[in-house]
Write a structure and sequence with these properties.
It is built from 15 helices and 9 strands. By secondary structure, the chain is of the alpha/beta class.
Amino acid sequence: MNKSALYTSVILGRVSTEDADRVLETIAALQPDVAGGPCEIVVADRIKDAISDQIASDYPQVRLIPCDPDISLPEMRTRAYEASSGEIVAVTEDHCVPSPGWVGKIQRAFANAPPSLSAVGGSVVNGVTDTGLDWATFLCEYSFFSPPVVEGRTDILPGMNIAYRRSVLDAAPRQRLSEGFWETTLHSHLLANGGKFRSLNELIMFHKKRFSWRLFASQRFVYSRYYAGCRLRYATRTKRVMMAGASLLLPPILLWRMVTSARRKGLNRELRSAFPWLAMLVVIWAAGESVGALLGPGDALARIE
């Protein structure tokens, strides 16, 4: 494969148990005539089903890395990165679809930037909008990144619409990559070591997973347990108990943040349809954090998709 100076690898983990064929749309959007340039596609796959076979048949250029079913998504991303070769490493998810020209825009952003630029990212648009639940699952996770986002220098980028210089990933301790989601484990490390992040409104990712209520509620719980459990991993028992109790006060705070963010982005109508679902989700979110604070993360990381 002939690589340019800013050849880009796109990595993702195949973990979705619902809307599992969405990854085919992701891969189609990464073909050179749509993506605005060539890229290497590396998929770490813990599902290994008929869709995996279809990828191998229809897109033989895609590198599939079989993984054990209980491996965590951060470890899968790390293995995909380690198997990739591009000087730019872009990260997305198996239910996200890049907008036209996504790869080309990433390449131009780095080509015109100083070496201190560690990562670029952009906005996230809801691509599944039929029901209030569809909007609730989007607003619960990505209302902050709904367009418009900050243009230029930032410290916050979405973990599924982001690209890094390979050199900064190579220099990071592997533990930062494999033991948690890069937004929480890697980004603070990069910023503390002089890295710079840039946000671009033109870099658009469509979030297109249609969740059932049961799956999204369970995912919200396990992610919240993972987050709180890791944050308090070395805390005393007394502090864990206190934080477990304090977590139960989170629902009105979380709901206020979501409502404020959605209104700021002009999503008032969408918010009204999503509100009953969001009200239930923030309670589940708080319960997850309370359990994580008290009992630790358990196997939550391996259950996140």
